[in-house]
Amino acid sequence: MEHDRADPDPPADALGALRAVGYEAPDGGARVTVYVFDGQDSLDAGAAELQSRDAGGARTLLGQNGALLFYGTAPDGAGGPLSALARAFAGDE
């Protein structure tokens, strides 16, 4: 899947993360942000905040790997590439 850099959505400071990087598919399909946290407690709080947000009908996926939190969204019905990215991020290639 091709991707372009995008602003993290939401930004890192809104979740208490140290840093974040965002990407989106050129066709406006999947959007992914990866956050870096300084510990499990702040990661858990950030994940809870993301889960509480209204995705506006989009499919959302969360995953973590150590201090990293993966947050992806895709329009309903376009989640295949998003699922593949989430599996790769989690180490389930």
List the helices and strands and how they pair.
Layout lengths: L3 E3 L5 H4 L3 E6 L6 E6 L3 H13 L6 E7 L2 E7 L5 H11 L3
Antiparallel strand pairs: 1-2, 2-3, 3-5, 4-5
Can you describe this structure in just a few lines?
With 93 residues, the chain is α+β, with helices and mostly antiparallel strands. It has helices at residues 12-15, 40-52, 80-90; strands at 4-6, 19-24, 31-36, 59-65, 68-74.
Q: In what order do the strands lie side by side in the largest sheet?
A: 1-2-3-5-4
Q: By helix and strand content, what is the structural category?
A: alpha+beta
Number of separate helices: 3
In whole angstroms, how far apart are the ends? 15 Å
Helix content: 25-40%
Report low-confidence residues grouped into runs of 5 or more.
Answer: none
Number of DSSP strand runs: 5
Question: Largest sheet, described in full?
Answer: 5 strands, antiparallel
Question: What is the assembly state of the chains in this entry?
Answer: single chain
Rg over CA atoms: 12 Å
Sequence of secondary-structure elements: EHEEHEEH
- Average pLDDT for all residues: 83
